[in-house]
Amino acid sequence: MVRLREIPRTAAFAWSPGVSRPLVVTGTRAGAVDADFSDETKLELWDLDLDNPDQGLELRPLASVTTDSRYMPGIASSS
Predict the structure, then answer these.
(1) Nearest residue to 27 (alpha-carbon basis) of 15, 42, 40, 37
(2) pLDDT tens-digit readout, 12-62
(3) Per-residue pLDDT, 2
């Protein structure tokens, strides 16, 4: 397997393999073990930019949304 691009995250991901530009979305969680010991929860959108030979191996996100991932007692539904 050949490595075309690298996304420097420990995250869950979703792939968009459509006919247009290939996109990847990653989701990180605060408190999860990663190389940066980050305390943020983020959703990030990545363009693999496979047609650009000048793009380096490591990508930067197109967009990033930081969210609050605190547990909120009383918000969870009870059966």
Answers:
(1) 42
(2) 889 877 777 778 898 887 766 656 666 778 899 988 877 777 777 778 888
(3) 74
Residue type (1 letter), 30: A
DSSP line for 10-77? --EEEEE-SSS--EEEEEE-TT---TT----EEEEEEE--TT-TTS-SB---SEEEEE-----TTTS-
SS3 9: coil
Distances 47 to 17, 76, 77 between C-alpha atoms, Å: 11, 35, 37
For the record, the structure tokens of 12 come out as: 């869950």
The verdict on pTM exceeding 0.85 is: no
Backbone dihedral region of 31: left (phi > 0), alpha (psi from -120 to 50 degrees) or beta?
A: left
Taking the C-alpha atoms of residue 19 and residue 29, their distance in angstroms, rounded to an integer, is 30
